[in-house]
Every structure is written in structure tokens, then in C-alpha cells.
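Students often ask why inverse folding is considered easier than folding. One informal answer: many sequences map to the same fold, so there is more than one right answer. In these notes we will look at a single instance of the problem. The structure comes first.
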């Protein structure tokens, strides 16, 4: 089976996303051919923080990607402004960087250059402070794709634990709201 090419968006550079990507990098190559999307220097800082010897290499296109467990290929998105954002802060530059990475990955998917997108967490307040008023990834992806009828779905593929059943899909009918408001939205 051919391993899919997946774009991993860095998420909020001041948050845990870069560390999650670097920390998982060596383990994911059995199931996919990953490419990070974000600022390579942010990933280099995460590699240093984690004390790993992974080499972060900037690429200009998916065709250049030769990722391996020891080489993290990163397609640069966003501006260098994000390099001045302190860790663990809410900053509009980080919100913009998360937005830019998701937009770049979506464009790659729409152009059939990648097979899927994996998103690291973004901070909604930083996103809003950057001028992007979305409740989360799902709504941004819908707009980038030009669709108005959309939903987030979680899927558990068939497995021995499901006793041979076809799998389990769950679609959220409400998102990001107080529990007291759910009944009015159903």
C-alpha cells in the first residue's frame, strides 16, 4: 500500500504544535510521508527544546520533499514576524502563522499535491487577534474550499476491536458553545 503524503500544519507557533510534530516525527513514517507546513525555524527551536537530532530542512515544493525519520522537510509559510513571538503567549503574529499554514496546506490538497492535512492546535484568541474570526479549523477549511454545507466528522476505521464491523463515524451537530445553548441549536 502506498503511504499517503500528509501536510502537518504547525498550528500556533507559541503553543505545543511544533513540539508535537517534532516529537511524533520519527514514529509516523510507517504510515505516511509527512511534510510540515509552517516556519522551519519554529520547528528547529522545537527540536532543540526536545533535544532531538532531527534535521529540519526547508523546501520550496512538495516535489522536493525527501523526509525521513531523521529529516523533517518543512514547506515555509507565513512571515518571519513569528520568530519574535515568545512561547506560551497569545499573539496575533502566531494566529496569523497558524492561519497561513492551514491555508497553504489546503491549497496543496486542492491542487492534489498532498493526500491529506493533519492540524496541530491553534489558539482561537490569537487567531481572532490576527483578524481571522473563525471558531476553529473546520470553518476555515470550509471557507478555503468554498463550501457552505460542512461538518466535522470523527472516524474509527474497521478493526478487531469493532468485531469486523464497517467502522464508526460521528459527526458533531454543535461546536464551541456553552452546554446550556446546545438544545436551542439542535
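Output (designed amino acids):
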Amino acid at each position: 500500500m502506498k503511504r499517503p503524503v500528509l501536510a502537518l500544519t504547525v498550528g500556533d507557533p507559541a503553543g505545543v504544535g511544533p513540539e508535537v510534530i517534532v516529537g511524533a516525527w520519527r514514529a509516523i513514517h510507517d504510515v505516511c510521508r509527512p511534510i510540515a507546513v509552517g516556519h522551519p525555524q519554529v520547528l528547529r527551536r522545537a527540536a532543540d527544546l526536545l533535544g532531538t537530532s532531527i534535521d529540519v530542512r526547508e523546501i520550496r515544493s512538495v516535489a522536493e520533499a525527501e523526509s525521513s525519520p531523521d529529516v523533517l522537510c518543512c514547506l515555509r509559510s507565513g512571515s518571519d514576524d513569528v520568530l519574535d513571538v515568545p512561547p506560551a503567549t497569545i499573539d496575533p503574529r502566531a494566529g496569523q502563522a497558524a492561519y497561513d499554514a492551514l491555508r497553504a496546506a489546503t491549497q496543496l490538497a486542492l491542487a492534489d499535491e498532498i493526500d491529506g492535512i493533519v492540524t496541530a492546535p491553534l489558539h482561537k484568541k490569537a487567531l481572532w487577534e490576527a483578524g481571522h474570526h473563525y471558531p476553529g479549523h473546520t470553518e476555515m477549511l470550509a471557507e478555503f474550499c468554498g463550501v457552505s454545507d460542512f461538518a466535522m466528522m470523527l472516524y474509527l476505521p474497521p478493526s478487531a476491536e469493532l468485531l469486523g464491523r464497517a467502522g464508526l463515524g460521528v459527526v458533531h451537530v454543535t461546536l464551541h458553545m456553552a452546554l446550556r445553548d446546545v438544545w436551542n441549536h439542535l
